C-alpha cells in the first residue's frame, strides 16, 4: 500500500518538475511559433521556427549533458541541488522576460537558448534529487506516476495560458508563465526537504526487511538501448510541435482559434492519465513493460496517421485522443524505464541529462528537416505536404516499438 509520504513526494516533484518543463514546452509548441510569426510573418514562420528551434536544440545537445555533469560534481548534495534548482528558475525567468520583449530573430534565439538552459539546470537538479530519493526510499512507483502527473501539471498550466489568456498578447502570456513557474518551484522546494525527512525518519519508510527495492538494471549496454528508444520516440513527439502551424495551414484557423483549440484538446489529459494509470497498475502487477510500451507506440502511430488524413475538427479531436492515450502509456512506463536503467548512482544527473538530451537532438533533427519533409510531401502527393510529414512520424514511432523489443524486463515478483 502506498504511504502518505510516497504520494506527497510524487505530488511535490510533479509540481516542481512539471512547472519547470512547461516553459520550454510552451515555447516549442505554440508561443515561440507565434512570436516568430509576429516578427517575420506567416509565410516565413515555418522556415524561421524550424531554424530557431533546431539551433536551440543543437546547442542543448552539448549543454544538456554538461548540466548533468555540473550537477553531479559541483552541486552534489541535496541542499545545493535545491539551491541551484531555485537559481535556475530565477535566471530562467529573467531570460523569458527578455524573450518577450525582443524585436529580432537574433535576440529571440539568444534568450530562447538562455531560458531553456537555465530551466534545464533547474530540471537536472530536481531529477538527480529524485533519483537519490528513490534509491534510499524504494518508492518504486514514483517515476511511473511522475510520467503521467507531470503532463497533468503541464496541461493545467497550458489551459491557463492558452484558454484564459487566449486574447492576450504574447508578452502577457509569458509573464503569466513566469509567475506560475516561480510560484510552483518555490512552493515545492519548501516542502521537498520536509517530506524526504519524514520519509527517512518515520515508520513510513519501508523497512529493509520488507521493502521491495527500486530495482535498476546496472548495465550500460541496456542503458544505450533505452537511450536509442528515447531518441526515436522523442523524434516522433517533437514532430508534433508543428501542429499549431498545421491547424493554420490545413484548417485556416486564426491565432486565437488555434489557442482555443489547443486549450480544448488539453482536456485530453484525462485520457493520458487514465491510460497511464492502467498501464502502471498492470505493469507492476505482471512485472512487464515491453507489451505496454509497444501498445502505446501503436496508438501514437495510429494518431499520426489520423493527423495525416484529417481535414476537419472531428478527425483532429479523434487523433488527439489517440495520441494522448498512447503518450499516457509511453510516458508513464517509459519514465520508470529510464530510472530503472541508470547504471550507477555516481552519475545519476549525467545519465539522466544524456537521456534528456535526446529531446534536443530529436528536436533539431526533426525541425531542420520539417520544411523539407513537407516540401517532399507536396511534390509526391500534390497537397499541403503535412500528410506525408505525419506518415513519417508514424513510421518513426513503429521503429521505437521495434527497439523496445530489446529492452530487459523487470525480474518476476516473488510470491
Structure characterization notes:
With about 425 residues, the protein is mainly α. Helices cover about 80% and strands about 0% of the residues. It starts with a helix and ends in an 11-residue tail after the last helix.
Quick tags:
single chain; 415 residues; mainly alpha; Growth Hormone, Chain: A; 14 helices
Structural class: mainly alpha
For the record, give the distance between the C-alpha atoms at the N and C termini, rounded to a whole number: 16 Å
CATH topology: Growth Hormone, Chain: A
User: Biggest β-sheet, characterized?
Assistant: none
Determine Rg (CA atoms, Å).
Answer: 21 Å
Look at the structure and give the mean pLDDT: 82
* SSE run: HHHHHHHHHHHHHH
CATH architecture label name: Up-down Bundle
Overall 3D form: globular
Helix share bin:
over 70%
* Total of domains: 1
Q: Can you identify the CATH superfamily?
A: MFS general substrate transporter like domains
Count of helical stretches: 14
User: How would you classify the quaternary structure?
Assistant: single chain
Amino acid at each position: 500500500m502506498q504511504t502518505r509520504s510516497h504520494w506527497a513526494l510524487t505530488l511535490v516533484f510533479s509540481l516542481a518538475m512539471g512547472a519547470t518543463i512547461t516553459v520550454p514546452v510552451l515555447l516549442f509548441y505554440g508561443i515561440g511559433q507565434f512570436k516568430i510569426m509576429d516578427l517575420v510573418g506567416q509565410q516565413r514562420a515555418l522556415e524561421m521556427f524550424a531554424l530557431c528551434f533546431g539551433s536551440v536544440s543543437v546547442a542543448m545537445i552539448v549543454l544538456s549533458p554538461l548540466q548533468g555533469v555540473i550537477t553531479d560534481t559541483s552541486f552534489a548534495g541535496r541542499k545545493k541541488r535545491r539551491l541551484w534548482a531555485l537559481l535556475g528558475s530565477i535566471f530562467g525567468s529573467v531570460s523569458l522576460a527578455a524573450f518577450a520583449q525582443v524585436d529580432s530573430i537574433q535576440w529571440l534565439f539568444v534568450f530562447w537558448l538562455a531560458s531553456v538552459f537555465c530551466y534545464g539546470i533547474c530540471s537536472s537538479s530536481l531529477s538527480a534529487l529524485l533519483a537519490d530519493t528513490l534509491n534510499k526510499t524504494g518508492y518504486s512507483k514514483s517515476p511511473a506516476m511522475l510520467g503521467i502527473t507531470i503532463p497533468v501539471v503541464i496541461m493545467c498550466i497550458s489551459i491557463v495560458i492558452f484558454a484564459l489568456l487566449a486574447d492576450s498578447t504574447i508578452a502577457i502570456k509569458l509573464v503569466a508563465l513566469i509567475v506560475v513557474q516561480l510560484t510552483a518551484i518555490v512552493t515545492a522546494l519548501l516542502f521537498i526537504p520536509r517530506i524526504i525527512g519524514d520519509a527517512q525518519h518515520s515508520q513510513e519508510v519501508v523497512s529493509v526487511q520488507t521493502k521491495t527495492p527500486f530495482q535498476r538494471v546496472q548495465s550500460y549496454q541496456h542503458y544505450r538501448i533505452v537511450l536509442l528508444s528515447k531518441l526515436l520516440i522523442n523524434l516522433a513527439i517533437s514532430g508534433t510541435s508543428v501542429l499549431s502551424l498545421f491547424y493554420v495551414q490545413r484548417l485556416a484557423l486564426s491565432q486565437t482559434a488555434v489557442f482555443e483549440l489547443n486549450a480544448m484538446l488539453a482536456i485530453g489529459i484525462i485520457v493520458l492519465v487514465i491510460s497511464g494509470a492502467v498501464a502502471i497498475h498492470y505493469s507492476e502487477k505482471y512485472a512487464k513493460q515491453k507489451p505496454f510500451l509497444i501498445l502505446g507506440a501503436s496508438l501514437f502511430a495510429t494518431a499520426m496517421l489520423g493527423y495525416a488524413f484529417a481535414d476537419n475538427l472531428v478527425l483532429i479531436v479523434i487523433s488527439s485522443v489517440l495520441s494522448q492515450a498512447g503518450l499516457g502509456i509511453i510516458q508513464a512506463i517509459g519514465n520508470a524505464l529510464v530510472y530503472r536503467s541508470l547504471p550507477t548512482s555516481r552519475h545519476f544527473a549525467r545519465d539522466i541529462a544524456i537521456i534528456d538530451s535526446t529531446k534536443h537532438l530529436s528536436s533539431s533533427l526533426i525541425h531542420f528537416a520539417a520544411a523539407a519533409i513537407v516540401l517532399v510531401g507536396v511534390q509526391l502527393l500534390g497537397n499541403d505536404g503535412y500528410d506525408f510529414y505525419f506518415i513519417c512520424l508514424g513510421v518513426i514511432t513503429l521503429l521505437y516499438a521495434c527497439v523496445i523489443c530489446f529492452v530487459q524486463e523487470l525480474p518476476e515478483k516473488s510470491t
